[in-house]
Amino acid sequence: KQGIGANRGNDPRVIQMQLKSDAIAREYARQIVAGNASTPGSNVTGVTNNGEFDGVARLATYSNLPADAVGVDFFELDKLILSMDQVDVLIVGPRHYALIKGLMRSAGGTDQIQIATHNVVSYAGIPVLMSRFLPFDAVDLAQPVIAARLNRDGAGGLTGLLPVSGGVDHHELGMAENSYEYKYRLAFQGGLIVPDAANTVKGTWFTHM
Fold first, then answer.
1. Whole-angstrom Cα distance, residue 93 to residue 109?
2. pTM (2 decimals)?
3. Is pLDDT larger for residue 209 or for residue 166?
């Protein structure tokens, strides 16, 4: 048998399952940020799902509207952070990620914090994570920055729900009846718990310039 991951070999079935597993992971990452529970089902990232859960962009309480978006600067970022008792992560789009890094370089250099084995840009000791799934207002050229509290100490905050297996479940269904092909089912059941959303997830709309 060949494994899945870096040592998967060249078995085309294993390679296809790995690619599908990667697509499922991207879909979960999308829903964590931009999921919409009012959507009965979608196929946005190439993965069919039976329904969505609300992501942080929909759950966040915003301090302003896209039409009132403000420029990215330390003062506005600090206002967002100080509006909450605890902030464990900032979620930003690619443009704002670059702008924040630029501000920090101008102020003397970027800070980094280690998460698992990865070095991540941080602001005021808070990890800054980039997501390409945050909503973008094309009329006002604005995108939000999200501040969130994570459930790291059991005292409340965002908690991602993962399968008991910890990943994608692979089920071999056998060979198709009328063709020389194998069938597999890949399944992933995930969700997001957000207690007291008003004090767990907040956002500010920033200009995209």
1. 20
2. 0.76
3. 209
